[in-house]
Design brief:
Helices cover 15% and strands 11% of the residues. The chain has helices at 55-58, 83-92; strands at 15-16, 19-20, 40-42, 47-49.
């Protein structure tokens, strides 16, 4: 259903025939960490998230999983190689 309260015309999963069913009855503005995300909707008075009604809750435990401007911080681990096993493998491969 389309939002009728704060984001008119945009699809919202929380809209019902009685109005907004989200806690508080309206969406909350984006937080500073959301700046640069492609999902933000700039409306007349504030910016809102197009995917989640309360962006501050998504940032409480780390980066938002829906943020498009955050790079995934997977680190490659360097595996230690036992030199004795490595020499045996290279000798067996000949």
């Amino acid at each position: 259903m389309h939002c009728l309260s704060i984001k008119p015309g945009s699809d919202c999963t929380f809209m019902t025939k009685k109005g907004c069913s989200f806690n508080g009855g309206k969406c909350h503005p984006v937080v500073e960490a959301c700046n640069g995300c492609d999902r933000t909707l700039n409306l007349s008075d504030a910016s809102y998230c197009g995917s989640f009604p309360e962006p501050a809750a998504k940032w409480r435990r780390g980066p938002c999983n829906l943020a498009t401007h955050v790079k995934n911080g997977k680190k490659e681990t360097i595996q230690k190689i036992n030199p004795l096993k490595a020499s045996k493998r290279s000798a067996a491969g000949r």
